[in-house]
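job 3f2a | input accepted
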Amino acid sequence: MLRSRFRTLDLFPKTTEDVRIRTNTGGILSLASSAIIVILSFSSFINYRRVIVHPEIFVDQSRSDKIDINLDVTLPKAPCARMVLHFHPLVKRLTLIVLSLDVMDVSGDQQQDVSHRLHKTRLDDKGRAIKAGLINELGNTETSDSDYCGPCYGGFTPESGCCNSCEDVRTGYRRKGWAIEDVDAIEQCVREHYKDKMLEEAKEGCRISGVITVNKVQGNFHIAPGHIELTDTIHIHDVQSFFMDSSQHDFSHTINHLSFGLQPPEAQKNPLDGKAVKSNNPAYTFIYFIKSVSTRYEYLSSPALETNQFSVTSHSRPLVGGKDEEDPSHIHARGGIPGLFFQYEISPIRVINKEVRNGTFGGFLGEVVAIIGGVITIATMLDRWLYGQSRRAEVKKSVGKES
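job 3f2a | predicted structure (403 res):
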């Protein structure tokens, strides 16, 4: 009795094999329906497996941390260190011009002539590394025997009581406000072949690469020539020797790479990578204004990566100021020092780029069921319509024969 009641609720009535009618049209529709189901299901699976990047924006809570800046800059017409001999009617003076990278920020911190984790590579006039060697400072060249104690020639004497290099003698003279009148009279300078090196360095370039660590606050780092002095917290470059050099140098440059934080993924292109600028004017300054945003990449199959994205605008001007060559209505300010300046600003915003699946597994199964049901329903309706048309055509044909 109960079974008969359930039978009346059956939504899937069956037919016996004897009353089933199979047609060629039905077979073709079955094959076409199966192919469509497979194609649509596979497309749904690909869409489910597809990874999309979902960006989120938060306030950066790690403002007290430090950040690394990865830098690689080539200066083909500015030596890493250049000795210049100045002639005067009364004296001749030897001066060492060193390219230095300095960092300053709004908190008051300063880093002068950064050398830790930063390398200077001397380049010849073809842009090739000289002896594939890295240098720190030109003055640190040859060393003497451990028992050697060089004279300071009346200059300031260090605590050791010895001036064992030409640079030691020059430093002692500079601290007393003196100038070296005859470099050939200084045995340390003769031994280190300073004059020969002056000629070798005239056509050299420099490549500065490495990492500098800065506070996560607004600041700047710059590459500039000249002796650095700090007077009442004012950062000063003595560039007089740079302009008196008979070999005209300039700050044409190529920024091979510049990024903040860990190396970004390949998909992220840094706006300054590969940027090349040429100039024949030694009295020229190049300024890059950078806005950096802390960025975190969260991957499905690999550890998260903390890095930064940044935007940049640039400006360059001659130190003499005056009207712009391309736009006379624009007037440049006068003053400054030659070099490359990177003004950076750290944004308080933090961006998280999170990899997520385009859908859930349950959603994928639901799509497959919907595909199967929809295709079979449409195919069934089409089959019934085609079969009905075929039956009516056969009836008309048989009636025509009887008449």
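job 3f2a | The CA atoms of residues 48 and 358 lie 5 Å apart.
job 3f2a | closed
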